[in-house]
Structure formats: structure tokens, C-alpha cells
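Hey,
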Amino acid sequence: PNQPAPVVLYAHGYTSNKIEQLGLALHAKFGIAGCSIDAVGHGVDIGDQEDIARALFEAQGAAPALDALLTGRIEDVDGDGEGDVGAEFFTGYMFKTRDNLRQSLTDWLLLVRLLRSFGTEGVMMDVDGDGNPDDLNSDGTPDLLGDFDGDGVVDLGGANNAYFTSGTSLGGILSSMLAAVEPQVVAAAPISGGAGLIDLTLR
């Protein structure tokens, strides 16, 4: 394509993570990019399989991609040395739950602003760790912010593109909130927002 793809912002469900979006990436066949981030207290937890995953990613020259995938917001709530995904997102303390939702929504709003800046300012970060902004096509010029394949064209987002939102369960709540407060989101498809959580809250 010769222009950036529009973007679906997909919010994952409770105790899940940003990779959930890949299972629902049907929009890709229509030329719409997918983008996801971890909610507060969530992230990718592969337990004792990290060494295997790292070997696989390193064999493909993609170790930085694994680092990005494993960078999350999981907390060890019970002190057993292992992360507890989403353990304190919904709590009996309503103000903490409120603040978790607010922070996660704020993160989504900032992501929209980042995506809208693609092609208008800045260059790609140093993903390969060589100390310089990335230059994937080796033309001596750092790649544009948002040009992930180094072909000189921003791949997704941008200031004048369409943004959509969707999400399941917790993601349904967050995508509904995002659509309500972010004017750049032109359509939303929340899926089972909160499931029975709303009913439990009312009781």
C-alpha cells in the first residue's frame, strides 16, 4: 500500500494481554491494522518457557520483539515470586478499580496520539540496540516514525487516518470508554463489555 493503514485499537479481556488481539485480527485481510497494549496489572506471562521463546526469537533475529512482547505490567501481588495477571484490577476497593480503569483509558488515549504522530514527526527508535535510530533500508537516513519495514512509507496510523476500537470483556468496557472520549475513533464494536461484572457491581 502507498498510504498508512487505518487502525483497530483492540483492548484485551480481564487476565489476558495484548497478544489476544492476534486471535481476532480478521480485519487485517481488509487492510486494517491492529494495535493493542496491556491494561494496568496485565501482561504476557509465559512462566518457565521464556528460555525456549527466547531461543526461537533469537534464531529469527527477533530478540527485541520478544522483549517488547514480554514487557508488561504484571505485578506479584501475593509475594510468591510469580506475576499475578490482573490480580488487583477489579477489587473490593472501588477507588482502586476506578483508577485502574482511568489509567488504562489514559494509556489508550496516549496511544492514539502516538499513532496520529506517525509520519508527521520523529524517527523510529533504536529497536536493534546498536545505539542509533533504526535505518532498515540502509539508506543512511533514520526511518520515519511508523515506517516499520523501512520502505519510506508510514505503515499505519497518521494524523488523517480512521481509528476504530473493539475489545472483549474488560476490553469491551475500555473500548466503550475510548469511543466516548476520543474524537478520532470513528466506530466501536465492544464485545460483551464486562460480561456479568456490571450486574455484580450494581448488587
